[in-house]
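Q: Hi! First time doing this. I have a protein sequence and I read that you can turn it into a structure. Is that right? Here it is:
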Amino acid sequence: MTRDEIKEKIQNLFESKYGIKLSEFTEETLIAEFSELDQRLDSIEFMNFIFDVEDMFSVKNRALGIPKTVGDLFTIFEKAINQK
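A: Yes, that's right. Below is the predicted 3D structure, encoded as structure tokens:
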């Protein structure tokens, strides 16, 4: 799966859950900034989103770390998918 395909799937899931289009943000955007847009998106809720993405791709990213930026989110799952 290409990075663009991974990005699209993650973006679609994020928008369906929170109504926020990740495609409107740069890859340098900090994940923490999303809690300012939607108070539901605290660190616990974001971890729930990570679990949803893991389920969607049938991967676990525990060894790859926690994303700090939108780009990190895509990179972590790109690596996890390629290691399957």
